[in-house]
Design goal:
By secondary structure, this protein is an alpha/beta fold. The protein has two domains: about 10-150, 3-Layer(aba) Sandwich (Rossmann fold); about 155-295, LD-carboxypeptidase A C-terminal domain-like (Glucose Oxidase, domain 1), CATH 3.50.30.60. The chain contains seven helices and 13 strands. Helix 5 (about 180-185) packs across helix 6 (about 205-220).
């Protein structure tokens, strides 16, 4: 995988809308954070645009993202917020020259569209807090994004959940929001996960939706050849009046029962209180033991 140059003080970071709208006033805390790291923020043309839910029309959002990709002074593109809308523009973004002159693309949730598509171009990206997230993000989440952007060593150790599947695995870390990965199946943006460690997280889904999405990933071969599975926050899951009968962990364990790779639950990344930065496309080692789990970026 191609790794963009790490940032250094004085570099420029662009904030753009690929999905939901984001105002200049909302950007203030994100600008302060980047400035505290010695970075200069450039607000994209879509910041402040209002097209119902979206930060501008599809064409405006695609053009803004392309503009930042082409600008040699911009060293990273920080997506303003998620919601919905990135899939509407992914085929209109011009990635010509991006592989030769890559830059960091940062975000999570709906930005999984970009993570997955860019992974197929062979370039690393960063799954982490967005500009909108700064106001409610924990210090650890912000610090982890700093380390990812500036090339510092990253290794996460957490307490093991009793539902974990013990073992070790090594491979490229891929993934993101489960609903988005599910929606990309069959398209040019869908990834090959063979031999890789898959990260998934989701928000505000019904348990039977979770079951359906994972069965579809399985039927498409995305779960069979993994080196490991990292399950982040399955936040605010819902059930029907007649219970589905399984919680999120039980659903995942049931669908992956025939596979022998390690599985870790409750990894602190996603829509929960903590959202640690993950360098997607990076080779990682996953060690799941009885008492602790360690994810080390190599």
């Amino acid at each position: 995988m191609i790794r963009p140059d790490y940032l250094k003080k004085g570099d420029k970071v662009a904030i753009v809308c690929t999905a939901r709208k984001f105002s200049k006033e909302e950007a203030e805390l994100a600008i302060e954070l980047m400035n505290s790291w010695g970075l200069e923020v450039v607000l994209g043309d879509t910041i402040g645009l209002d097209n119902y839910q979206l930060g501008g029309t599809d064409q405006q959002r695609a053009d803004d993202f392309t503009k930042q990709l082409k600008d040699p002074e911009i060293k990273a593109i920080w997506c303003a917020r998620g919601g919905y809308g990135t899939v509407r523009i992914i085929d209109d973004i011009d990635f010509t020259g991006f592989v030769d002159h890559p830059k960091w693309i940062v975000g999570f949730s709906d930005v999984t569209v970009l993570h997955s598509h860019i992974h197929n171009l062979g370039v690393e990206t960063i799954h982490g807090i967005m500009a909108f997230s700064v106001a409610k993000s924990l210090v650890d989440s912000r610090d982890s994004l700093y380390r990812a952007l500036f090339g510092q060593e990253i290794s996460y150790t957490i307490h093991s959940d009793r539902s974990n599947k013990i073992g070790q695995g090594q491979g490229e870390l891929v993934g993101g929001n489960l609903s988005i990965l599910y929606s990309l199946l069959g398209s040019v943006s869908s990834m090959n996960t063979e031999g890789k460690i898959l990260f998934i997280e989701d928000l505000d889904e019904y348990l039977y939706h979770l079951d359906r999405m994972l069965h579809n990933l399985k039927r498409n071969g995305l779960l069979s050849g993994l080196a490991g599975l990292v399950v982040g926050g399955m936040t605010d899951m819902h059930d029907n009046a007649i219970p589905f009968g399984y919680d999120a962990k039980q659903i995942i364990l049931s669908i992956t029962a025939e596979y022998d790779y390690p599985i870790v639950f409750d990894f602190p990344a996603g829509h929960g209180e903590e959202n640690l930065a993950l360098n997607l496309g990076r080779e990682v080692k996953l060690e799941v033991n009885q008492d602790r789990t360690q994810l080390t970026f190599l």
